[in-house]
Amino acid sequence: MKYRQLGNTEMKVSEVSFGTWAIGGSWGNVKDEDSLAALDRAMEAGVNFFDTADVYGDGHSEELLAKATKGKENDIYVATKFCRSADITDPAVYTYESVRAFCEASLKRLQRERIDLYQIHCPPTDILRDGEVFAVLDRLKREGKIREYGVSVETVEEGLICLEQPGVKALQVIFNLFRQKPAETLFPKAHEQGVGILVRLPLASGLLTGKFSENSTFAADDHRNFNRNGESFNVGETFAGLPFETGVELSRKLDWIGESRGNMTRAALRWILDNPHITCVIPGFRNTAQVEDNLGVQIVSPFSGDEHARLREFYEQNVKNAIRGPY
């Protein structure tokens, strides 16, 4: 496993890390024993960073991480997020009293004394622009409740607003072959300021595995069913904002990337890790087999300059204008 510095913090994290949305909920039926076995396999392979949130299964993924990392708290970094269990548009949600309550609840579920990276979970742009929540997070850091803090953002604009705050040490963004805009200005500026980049949804909700057809179906409690058109939250969080059928068609045109790299999954992750401004990718997983597949990116060769240019042209000509929602 290779490790990269998380911005200008003291944390060095595995370039392949994992997100725990899928094992908490909203991705269909998942068994806890499968989730715990997968977490164990990831740590065995050298993964030392996991991303979660208080709303993933109403805190269930935090509880699973507590079980999996018990006794390893000094070796495994955990990032969690807050605000989406309440009305994210209400300024009262971001007061010291409110944020501290969220923090204490997550600490209890995680069975930890300090959160390594505490992130605001995709709040409205106005909240970020107002900026008062950052003073709250500074206070929690002084109190020792959190080591560092960051923001999970939906758009490049929001990311740039966050970079105006000196205490922000990480940005979590949607970035993949179907969603390349953040690489243009946000990533270089974050790198210049010593801010880490965590890449979520690197496989575009599974589109970039190449395993779906237009007839693929998803469980009722899977966001790839109930949020397909942004019915429950930002449409960009599901299939990178692409209509499902369009995404499937586009993924077929990219199957060449996996020909010499094992499969599309590993190739899509490799493309992201080729970017020097990225700290780590945090793909989701539901079982050990998916963890193993994602870890396979470590033995995949980087893309050539010509291949990167070809993929950029494909995005500009075929993908960019099909993405829905602000990004």
UniProtKB/TrEMBL annotation:
Q: Name one GO molecular function term.
A: oxidoreductase activity
The family database entries (Gene3D superfamilies) matched by this protein are listed as:
NADP-dependent oxidoreductase domain
Superkingdom, according to UniProt? Bacteria
**What InterPro entries does UniProt report for this protein, alphabetically?**
AKR, AKR2_Oxidoreductase, NAD(P)_OxRdtase_dom_sf, NADP_OxRdtase_dom
The record's listing under PANTHER family reads: D-THREO-ALDOSE 1-DEHYDROGENASE, NADP-DEPENDENT OXIDOREDUCTASE DOMAIN-CONTAINING PROTEIN
Record-annotated NADP-dependent oxidoreductase domain positions: 16-315
Protein name according to UniProt:
Aldo/keto reductase
Please state the span of the N-terminal signal peptide per the UniProt entry.
Answer: none
Question: Which Enzyme Commission number(s) are listed?
Answer: 1.1.1.-
Keyword line: Oxidoreductase
Report the Pfam families cross-referenced here: Aldo_ket_red (PF00248)
